[in-house]
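Extended Data, panel c. Modelled sequence:
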Amino acid sequence: MAVSPVIMIPKARNQLAMDDRHYHFFTGRLAEHSLRRVVTSLSESLGFAYTIDVLPITVAALMTPPWIARKARIPPEATDILLPGYCDGDLGPLVEIAGDRNIKIGPRDLRRLPDYFGQSPPPCDYGRYRIEIVAEINHCPRLSIAEILATANAMRRDGADVIDVGCEPGGPWLGVADVVAALKDAGHRVSIDSLDSREIEPAIRAGAELVLSVNSSNRERVADLALERQVEVVAVPDDPKSLAGFDETIEFLASRGVEMRLDPILEPIGFGFGASLLRFAETRQRYPDAAMMMGIGNLTELTDVDSAGVNVVLLALCEEWNITSVLTTQVINWAKSSVRECDIARRLVHHAIAHEMLPKHLEQGLLIARDEQVIEPMADDLVKLADAIRDNDYRIFALAGEVHLVGKKVHLHDSDPFVVMQQLLASGANGTRPENLDASHAFYLGYEMHKALTAIKLGKTYEQDESLRWGHLTRGERRHYLTKQRREPDAP
């Protein structure tokens, strides 16, 4: 049976203070110098003791737990064993020789060791939220039921609590009841987005639990339906800019006992955005105990900016003003992941506001264009690496605005990967192409160097054979370089 990558140890040993801990690291020949430099610095700042076991292999990433167990020399004073990040698989052989020591998998890139040792456990209550996400599927009359269900399922996976069926002007849409019934059968909570009572009534009878929206034009008919079916409605003003009719609709619905949410309507930038925010604040002051909703699509869909940051700011306002539901859409390309962004943002802002702390260093999912920090190698390490490499493979790094290609007695670099490739093609004997550079290898190097250049341009950390980090949009990549060589090593 495979053993868990993190082995629990007896409580007494686990409670050792940092200055009582002795970490035993494993590495290969190429990474020895860099690892010693990083670990020495960490040891001095954090106060732990350490030993480094340099095993007879060039690349530490090729180690496997059974192989390490055969080669390991673990000192008796060690309290913790830290394996290279690529060292996955059955840890059983190591457990047998480690005794009660704590075995952990470290980061895949040793440059991330400071982060690894600086990480505190995530707050035990992080991830809680109050804001409900109502996700609208726009132009439903133009879509088939199968298309609507597929979209709804994807939105639910991304965090939507309620699926809003978006209608169109010029109705009534005769197919609304069938769509609502299909969504209910699939387990969705459903709202109907229409002012037309001829669409609202069949939607309610088919199972819609929320009506967007109600004003003076439809409140009498919708109030009767809402009471009959115990349905909640969203009250909106007849004129958002003046809030005309808003108080009257609220009073009308309240006098009849209709459950409601208040939405003063968020306006787009250029059409009274700031004033509309003031109206939300005014509505909260006038109706301090009322449920409220904010439709945020007028900002995310109608502004030339990636939607993630906009969603965070708007959900922060909602959290502070006790607006416990948002209506979002994801139609235009820059807002295609708004539902997922809102799901992450509602957790981030809730934790920050509940604990009166900055929403910083808590959540990486919305850091899409840039990384929290850029981790680069030391220039001296690359020079030493070129002298130490004995195999025919190349290592790629991003440093100081340039792409670096390091191989056996080769260290090439330039801000343009095409220049680096030209240098490589001329680096063989008598200025010819190196013998180890076949077509597939060249393709791989070009791909990785382009990733490195992208990281440089955007402010990201580049790690060879690893996906660039795009927050919640990150897609894992197959490790082509390591997969090609992965084997049970026995010698350099």
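The two ends are 30 Å apart (CA to CA). This feature is highlighted in the accompanying rendering.
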